[in-house]
Amino acid sequence: MDLLERRSVSALALIYLFRMLGLFLIMPVISVAADGLDGADAALIGTAIGIYGLTQASLQIPMGMWSDKIGRKRVIVIGLLLFAVGSLICANAHDITTLIVGRAVQGAGAIASTLMALLSDVTREQNRTKAMALVGVSIGASFMLSLVLGPWLFALIGLSGLFYLSFALSLLGILLILFAVPNIVQHTFRRDTTPSLTALGLVLKDSKLRFLNVSVLLLHASLTAMFVTVPNLLIEQFGLPLSEHSLLYLAIMGFAFVGMLPLVIIGESKGKMKGVLIAVFILLGVSAIALQWTPYLWAFSVLLCVYFVGFNSLEAILPSLVSKLAPVGYRGTAMGVFSTHQFMGSFLGGIGGGWLLQHHSNDGVFWVVGVVFLAWSLVCLTQPAPRQLSGLAFSLPNMNNEEIAKLADQLAEIQGVEGMQIFKDEQTAYLKVDKKLLDKDALRRIAPQVHL
Length: 452
Known about the structure:
Low-confidence stretches: none
Oligomer: single chain
Strand content: under 5%
Shape: globular
């Protein structure tokens, strides 16, 4: 990457990080802190935790498409302003209803797909995968930092302080988008990063993608449901003050990160992805059910660590699988639908977890989460093993229809090319390839601009 690309990608990754921190910092503390608000009960607290997911899921694809018309930066600034307004509403909430409204407004700043589209605008084809990986790291880091920093910051500045911090982070994000990212006048529509309405039906009908979409929905529903009950449980059953939860989460997330690495390596490098998925779903189910029976803090911590080994593994594996299994040339649409399911899972987990806690106690939450994952592992058994395919994209010189047809015929004859789409409007070719079989020399002869 050149200097301008590095600066732009770093700024966009930081905006992602700040925004996700603003959403997640309250997760490990809100079920405890919101208990003192007027009208609060377990079901409404769960709604406050998860409601942002509903507005995120509803608006992120429309806002991404809106950015094609009015510009990426404008939509991102509007989204960050909505997030800032929502943070202020939450910071000044004295009752649970106001907190729910504020969280919904926070979620309405749904800029994930727009940020990815802008990332595509400011990077060259050969650097886009690295740029997307950097943004992915920032998203993962935001969740880990939130768990560790949330309880510690809450002890210092309280719940209102956390929301004021979210407000400040959103304003900092606006400064970054305005002054650190170059102004792009011509926005290029790239199907690998931008959702397409024409491909939406194709993606929704794909059974393999549908399985992955439901998987991420269940995964994030379980996470949100768990954090409706776990913080209170640590305080009331194990006598661990909220201010000390940070150290516990730091240890758990550290061990969970190390524990997930062998699973990801076995799945990605050894071609055992289906077996790893089944094992992870069973791991999640068994650990969730067992959490209700442990009488000791150390045992509860070990089981929570096992849960996060499974959670972190799926967080790494599922997006990779979606990228590989997406229809050729429509990765942006597939990832947009996947993210929508992810946020909808957060909403359903908050609503469902709060309702279960109010009507069936902690055990009800753990039982439902565990049984759902064990049942889903049986569904996973019926799925075909995902093929280890990779996506490639490269820009074309200005070509007419006859030249494009000739190029398509040549590409189709290359060993290892499993699928192909060439879009004249975008002047880009998208390939689905088996890298173990791909004749790289033949591909380079036909398309010397490709980066392998």
